[in-house]
Design a protein that fits this description.
The protein is mainly α and 116 residues long. It contains two helices and two strands.
Length: 116
């Protein structure tokens, strides 16, 4: 049995893993995709039942899969695009810091005459 954590130390929490491998708390976009997929499942199944008065489990499962995958790919695309923009901005900031005040500084005005 593990010893209790010392006072002031953060407790280690077990993260929620879906199907044993998808870490919902630490994987970007996973939580929102699962929640929207669940809502899509309920809406699709209930809507199909209202219109046809037949068993709607298959439509609900299909709605879950489609909405979850749609939200997942949309969110991951935006996440990747944001990471690329952040990396470009970080590189530009490094260049600005490196070249600031030197003759290579693009913001520095170059005059033909030198001041004495």
């Amino acid at each position: 049995m593990a010893a209790p954590p010392e006072p002031g130390e953060p407790e280690e929490r077990k993260s929620l893993k879906l199907l044993g491998f998808l870490d919902v708390e630490n994987t970007p976009c996973a939580r929102h995709s699962i929640l929207y997929g669940s809502l899509g499942s309920v809406v699709a199944g209930f809507g199909h039942f209202l219109f046809t008065s037949e068993r709607s489990c298959d439509v609900g499962v299909g709605g879950f899969i489609l909405v979850t995958l749609g939200c997942w790919f949309h969110c991951r695309y935006n996440y990747a695009k944001q990471r690329i923009q952040e990396r470009i901005a970080r590189e530009e900031i490094k260049k600005k810091i490196l070249y600031e005040g030197t003759h290579l500084d693009p913001e520095r005005k170059h005059n033909g005459s030198s001041s004495n």
